[in-house]
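User: Good morning. I'm curious how zinc ion would be positioned relative to this chain. Could you predict the structure with it bound?
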Amino acid sequence: MDKKALYDTFIQLENDTNATLGRISEVKNEVEALVEENATLRIENQHLRDRLSDLEKQKEISKDGIGTEMSKSRLNLEKIYEEGFHVCNVFYGSRRVNDESCAFCLDVIYGERR
Ligand SMILES: [Zn+2]
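Assistant: Good morning! Here's the predicted structure, ligand included:
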């Protein structure tokens, strides 16, 4: 391989590598967006379940179940929070940067309810 061919090969390798890095970065962004969307959907799902169970309770006002149902929902939100996502209305489903704690989230999970 002469010097010119060697140099051309090197340039080609550099271009390919840059293109690959660009693609890696794109895919990484897509994965991050999907992960956040997934968290948002799980929170939304939990809220809908809460709403549904509230409606069912209103229909047949029974004494038992209420306490356990509420704590189950809070446990689900707490789990999502501990996985590093906001469950509060303010930042809903977005990642908690560096696991920063969030007063809004903590209120949703541990605060007085309604
Ligand atoms: Zn939050």
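The chain has a mean pLDDT of 88. The radius of gyration is 24 Å.
Let me know if you'd like a different ligand tried.
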